[in-house]
Design goal:
Elements lengths: L2 E7 L2 E7 L7 E9 L2 E12 L5 E7 L5 E8 L3 E5 L8 E7 L2 E7 L7 E7 L2
Antiparallel strand pairs: 1-2, 1-10, 2-3, 3-4, 4-5, 5-6, 6-7, 7-8, 8-9, 9-10
């Protein structure tokens, strides 16, 4: 996941940038918009919680971070799940060759939204 990623569809661009993992911490930021206008942004981190379980923390629009504990880990995919959150409840990242696919959905996979990112750095 490390690096800068970009997707564009129907005039809307979305970008995510992820640090290299260091000290059990991966830091990320994301933004999306149209033309030169940023419509939304998010600060993210993936780190172990107090019990050592890997957690995705998302803070959209500068709001307090919401925890999504790790649910499934594989060589090319990682899935986080928080059934108590309204939307999304499930956040998944999957590598497909040189493409990073991010998908948000409800816990059962319904109402899915996906972004196919190309590496820009």
């Amino acid at each position: 996941m490390s690096g800068s990623w970009s997707a564009e569809a129907d005039g809307v661009w979305t970008e995510e940038t992820w640090s290299r993992p260091r000290g059990n911490l991966l830091l990320g930021s994301g933004s999306s918009g149209t033309a030169e206008i940023v419509r939304s942004f998010e600060f993210m981190r993936i780190a172990p919680d107090a019990d050592g379980r890997l957690v995705f923390w998302g803070a959209p629009g500068g709001k307090p971070a919401i925890a999504f504990p790790g649910e499934r880990f594989g060589a090319r995919e990682i899935v986080f799940l928080n059934r108590d959150h309204d939307y999304p409840q499930r956040i998944a990242y999957r590598r497909d060759g040189e493409t990073l696919v991010a998908t948000t959905s409800l816990a059962d996979g319904s109402k899915a939204q996906s972004w196919r990112y190309a590496r820009i750095k």
